[in-house]
Each structure stands twice: as structure tokens, then as C-alpha cells.
């Protein structure tokens, strides 16, 4: 399991919007014992990690106390990667409640049809993403499809550009469903953006990911979600991968049930702990 989220890794590499802060906990010898990232644009959000050898020594408590100082009177949400008893005890001791649970689910790709022929409406075609041409259309549909989501629905052109510059980015695995000609008034209806984690990143071998999958609210009922899923999984199997992962909110009961029916199993859990204010 990764110690911090992809978003935090990207901000460590490339920087982020004003208001973010990195917090380090070091030993007397200068060894890194823990790390936290705090964002204070609006409500405060953070994640923190403690080196395994330093756990149980008060490092997590000290980091969280510093994060709370940075957040001030703002409501604060803190992600804990893995549902570990020590993290639960620390959060509850400091007055946090369990607010969100993010599931990582996985399935093998052995049973995936390598050449699916999904039934698409006559005027709909699925094409690879074209860097430099499709960004605005994608951002629009992403914002509409994830208007309810506190992170995904707020992506900016910079968020997209940072990922397009990453070594893992592959336009061939970024599938867009268009009604009509995208260069002549066509409308983007949905997309399936896949990702490949290199060996050692999400497992001993390379692992695929359903990175972002969505359908525009106006295109619901066209069965595009299933068609895009099948095409994306086939792409990942064609890359020679044996396993695929995805992330979904635990309380999205319909989505979790759908994924379980299609062979996904629960693999790991991340928990967001929330405290409404420093005075609560």
C-alpha cells in the first residue's frame, strides 16, 4: 500500500495551489520519522504517515497536533491509509469521527474479453484521448459527472496537465465516447481513463487501474458505462496485465455491488477522519 495518495505525491513533485504545507517529523539524528501534507484552501484537509519503526513513539500524535495548528479553526479532515487500529485510536482520542471510507477493489483480468464489441448507439464512437485537443471537453464532463465529489469534481486544467506529463500517461488507454464528430460539433458523453502501475508500485507485478470512469448525467441510460468498462479492461489485458484495481466510496452501495458482481473484491481501505473545528 502506498504511504500517501497520488495527489500528495504529485504535489511533492510539482508543487500545488497556495495554502498547502508539508510537515516533517525528524529524529535527533535527522532521520525522517513522519510526514504530513496539509491543504488549507477552504476546509482543511491532510494526510499523514509515520515510518514503521517510529510508530507507537508519539510521532503520529505530534504530527497531528501540528496539522491542527496549521488548520486553525477550520473543519479538518485527515486521511489514514489503511484502517489501522493505532490510527483509529489516535483519531478518536483527539475527537475525530469516521467520515469517509475509500475502498480499493481488485480483480484478475484473465476472464476479460480481449476483443469486446459493445453495443453503442449508432451515432456514438469511442476514440482515444488527443492531448492538446480534448482537454476542455473532458474537464467539462468530469466536473458534471463528479459534481458531488469533493476532489474529483474540482479538477482544473493544471491538474489534468500534470497527469498528462507523468511517465504512466498513455492516451491509447484514455477512451472517450463521442456523439458525432469531435472536430465538428460532437459531444463528449463519457470516458474511461485507465492507468498502469509499474512493478513494485501497487504490487510485485504491473497492475492496471480503472483510473477515472464516468458518463455525463445527460447520457445516462445509454449503457455507456458498461461499454467503456469493457473496452478499458480489454485495453489493460492487451497490455499483458493480470490484475486491475479501482477506488470507490464504501457508501456508494450500488457501485460496490456492481463491481462485486463483475468480479472485483475488496482489497484495502483508506479512512478519512473529520473534526468539525478545533472547538468541537
Would you give the CATH topology of the largest domain?
Aminopeptidase
Question: In the CATH hierarchy, what is the class of the largest domain?
Answer: Alpha Beta
The helical percent reads: 25-40%
Main sheet properties: 11 strands, mixed
Individual helix count: 7
Give the strand tally.
11
Which term fits the overall shape? Answer: globular
* Helix-and-strand structural type: alpha+beta
Give the ordered list of helices and strands: HEEEHEHEEHHEEEHEHE
Low-confidence stretches: none
Evaluate the radius of gyration: 20 Å
What count of structural domains? Answer: 2
Measured distance between first and last alpha carbons: 32 Å
Subunit structure: Monomer.
GO molecular function, one term: mycothiol synthase activity
EC number: 2.3.1.189
Binding site for 1D-myo-inositol 2-(L-cysteinylamino)-2-deoxy-alpha-D-glucopyranoside: 26, 151, 195, 209, 247
What report would you give on this structure?
The chain is α+β, with helices and mostly antiparallel strands and 280 residues long. The chain has 2 domains: 6-102 and 271-275, Gcn5-related N-acetyltransferase (GNAT) (Aminopeptidase); 111-241, 3-Layer(aba) Sandwich (Aminopeptidase), CATH 3.40.630.30. Helices cover 26% and strands 31% of the residues. It contains 7 helices and 11 strands. It has helices at 6-14, 59-71, 85-93, 135-145, 157-164, 224-238, 253-261; strands at 21-26, 32-39, 44-50, 76-81, 97-108, 124-128, 174-179, 187-197, 207-215, 243-249, 265-275. The protein has an 11-stranded mixed beta sheet with strand order 1-2-3-4-11-5-10-9-8-7-6, sandwiched between helices. β1 (21-26) and β2 form a beta hairpin. It is globular. The two termini are 32 Å apart. The model has no long low-confidence stretch (mean pLDDT 92).
